[in-house]
Amino acid sequence: MTSKAIPDASNFVKGVDTSFEVILGIIFFFLIAITATMIYFVFRYRKERNPVATQIHGSVSLEILWTVIPTLLVMVMFYYGWMGYKPMKEVPDDAFVIKSVGRMWNWQFEYENGKKTDTLYVPLNRAVKLDLKALDVIHSLYIPSFRLKQDVVPGKKQMMWFIPGREGEFDLFCTEYCGLRHSSMQTSVIVMPQDKFDSWYIDTTATAPLISDKPGALGLVIVKKNGCLACHSLDGSKLVGPSWKALFGKTETVITKGQTREINVDTAYVINSIYNPNDDIVKGYSKGLMLSYKNELTEDDIDEIIEFMKTLSN
């Protein structure tokens, strides 16, 4: 009785693995061959056996040999590398498109029906295209099991595509150092059979998780969804931005157009800080680390965030 072969996690696994194995095989061959040759020369041409040095004036045949052979080997490695890379740029016309946004320090995935998640959900055995966008600095989306990695540069259009071949959960993370909490910029790819994916995709209730009646509960969901807690702590510890602990209603010292002034943290201040984050920089923090969320958060969203912030004043 033969066991059933486990399918590859994506359609690119075989090409990348073959390229890797060929290059690694060539490297190991020459590592062993060169090391063995060096050891042989050490014993064969040691002083006792060769007391008088012999000048060698060169060998045309040998020079041709060590030029042609490495050239051929480099072309072999290039061939396998190119054959693994080329299909990654040939996206099927019927690919399922998902907008993928990277920011310090989280990923967000937006589907064509408006659904947004911080985990990537994809259907099994169907071509998926990720339209990649970075909102702040260079990130790099990496799915090791799929053998895929793509740098995401602000202001530049980039994409990656794949066909998931195995159901399950796979790691997805940023592999380009992007600041203080780079290591926390990780999530998962969930691969589901097409019927289960369709049920998840059309289920609009999945975009609105159950919210408790506790004050600020919806605000907490919003800040988690938009990655706010990657930069603002809730316990008073200092991160990239000011902690939210007991922040609302507090008087802060800020720098506005080069001038230091005192300002009260009220609703107007919070709205302006989210929409125009570089207007008033809290003293002790750096300018330019936060981008505007004007196109990401409505004023209703901000009202919910403020309700959540008020709960941190207790």
UniProtKB/TrEMBL annotation:
Catalytic activity: 4 Fe(II)-[cytochrome c] + O2 + 8 H(+)(in) = 4 Fe(III)-[cytochrome c] + 2 H2O + 4 H(+)(out)
Keyword Hydrolase belongs to the record: no
Domain Cytochrome c: from-to ranges: 214-313
Cofactor(s) this protein cannot do without: Cu cation
Domain Cytochrome oxidase subunit II transmembrane region profile: 1-92
Record key words, sorted: Copper, Electron transport, Heme, Iron, Membrane, Metal-binding, Oxidoreductase, Respiratory chain, Translocase, Transmembrane, Transmembrane helix, Transport
SUPFAM superfamilies per record: Cupredoxins, Cytochrome c, Cytochrome c oxidase subunit II-like, transmembrane region
InterPro entries per record: CcO_II, CcO_II-like_C, Copper_CuA, Cupredoxin, Cyt_c-like_dom, Cyt_c-like_dom_sf, Cyt_c_oxidase_su2, Cyt_c_oxidase_su2_TM_dom
GO cellular component, one term: plasma membrane
Membrane-spanning residues: 22-43, 64-82
Membrane in keyword set: yes
Subcellular location: Cell membrane; Membrane
An example Gene Ontology biological process: ATP synthesis coupled electron transport
Membrane topology label: Multi-pass membrane protein
GO molecular function: copper ion binding; cytochrome-c oxidase activity; heme binding; oxidoreductase activity
UniProt domain Cytochrome oxidase subunit II copper A binding: residue ranges: 93-203
Function in brief: Subunits I and II form the functional core of the enzyme complex. Electrons originating in cytochrome c are transferred via heme a and Cu(A) to the binuclear center formed by heme a3 and Cu(B).
Similarity section: Belongs to the cytochrome c oxidase subunit 2 family.
Entry protein name: Cytochrome c oxidase subunit 2
Native source organism of the sequence: Labilibaculum euxinus
